[in-house]
């Protein structure tokens, strides 16, 4: 799956639902790229966010967060909340878009991207809780 | 201005300041392209949005990096104020697109865009908070920040 294939892929799909699914799928790539970078930085023992970076309480309320994410936030690691909100948002998008497609190749792409996102979430939560 | 692909590559670069905001801006582009492709009148109504998003995807990293600096020069404040104004503009534009999608009953896209809207609104509020805590802001900062935040309030109401 390559970002440059997006325009080719979206034009070959016939139904609007499929086009939405393709758009949602490709919209996850920048997020995945950022999440990978954040995990790398965390694994190096650094933290990219300034101390004054404030996560919003509303974000917690709006997004349905997993128990692990809630644990990180409840430990007052507010600086990481934007990162985890992005993870949750990416997961919901992948799930929603996957439900719109019947094409096997596309479904495989969704499984791959959802798997990558889940893995990054698990690893980064582990790093953050170990600090 | 950098292309979508250049910006995507840059987001993965550990030395770049691009983080969540850049990712969300770039994420908007496939959805806008889908809407342009499938919706009559979308290009005419919101054709300039893509350029604004590309500019913001590039500016967001700068916003983040400048807001972390201990000292911000006058020209850097000007740059920050322009970025905050762009944030206000995109939030206002997304509100208009959401209303348009509601009118034409495009609930799937509206749902996706609403998630990005909420994320960007909170990100702007969060990014502004360390700037409000400083004591060296020029007065233009307060008026521009207030106008950008007002765009969020209007949508919430």
Given as residue ranges, the uncertain stretches of chain B (5+ residues, pLDDT < 50) are none
How many distinct beta strands of chain A?
Answer: 0
End-to-end C-alpha gap of chain B: 35 Å
What shape does the CA trace of chain A take? elongated
The unreliable regions of chain A are 50-65, 73-79
β content of chain B, as a range? Answer: under 5%
What fraction, in percent, of the residue positions of chain A are helical? Answer: over 70%
What is the average per-residue confidence, as pLDDT of chain B, rounded to a whole number? Answer: 89
Mean pLDDT of chain A: 67
Total helical elements of chain A: 6
- Radius of gyration of chain B (CA) equals 16 Å
Distance between the termini of chain A: 35 Å
Instruction: Give the overall shape of chain B, derived from the CA principal axes.
Output: globular
Number of helices of chain B: 7
Instruction: Please trace the helix and strand order of chain A, writing H or E for each element.
Output: HHHHHH
Radius of gyration of chain A: 16 Å
Binned strand content of chain A:
under 5%
> What share of the residues of chain B lie within helices?
over 70%
How many domains would you count in the coordinates of chain B?
Answer: 1
């Amino acid at each position: 799956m390559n970002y440059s294939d997006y325009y080719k892929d979206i034009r070959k799909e016939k139904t609007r639902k499929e086009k939405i699914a393709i758009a949602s799928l490709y919209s996850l790539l920048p997020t995945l790229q950022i999440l990978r970078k954040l995990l790398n930085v965390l694994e190096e023992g650094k933290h990219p966010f300034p101390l004054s970076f404030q996560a919003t309480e509303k974000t917690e309320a709006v997004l349905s967060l997993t128990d692990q994410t809630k644990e990180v936030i409840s430990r007052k690691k507010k600086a990481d909340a934007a990162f985890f909100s992005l993870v949750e948002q990416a997961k919901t998008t992948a799930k929603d878009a996957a439900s719109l497609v019947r094409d096997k190749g596309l479904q495989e792409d969704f499984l791959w991207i959802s798997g990558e996102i889940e893995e990054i979430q698990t690893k980064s939560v582990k790093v953050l809780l170990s600090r | 201005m950098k292309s979508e692909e250049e910006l995507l590559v840059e987001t993965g670069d550990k030395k770049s300041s691009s983080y969540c905001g850049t990712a969300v801006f770039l994420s908007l582009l496939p959805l806008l392209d889908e809407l342009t492709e499938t919706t009559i009148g979308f290009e005419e109504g919101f054709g300039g949005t893509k350029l604004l998003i590309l500019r913001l995807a590039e500016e967001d990293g700068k916003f983040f990096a400048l807001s972390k600096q201990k000292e911000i020069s006058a020209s850097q404040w000007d740059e920050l104020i322009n970025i905050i104004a762009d944030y206000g503009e995109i939030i206002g534009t997304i509100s208009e697109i959401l209303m348009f999608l509601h009118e034409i009953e495009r609930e799937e896209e509206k749902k996706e865009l609403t998630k990005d809207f909420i994320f960007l609104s909170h990100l702007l509020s969060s990014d502004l908070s360390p700037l409000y805590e400083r004591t060296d802001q020029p007065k233009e900062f307060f008026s521009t920040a207030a106008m950008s935040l007002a765009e969020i309030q209007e949508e919430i109401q």
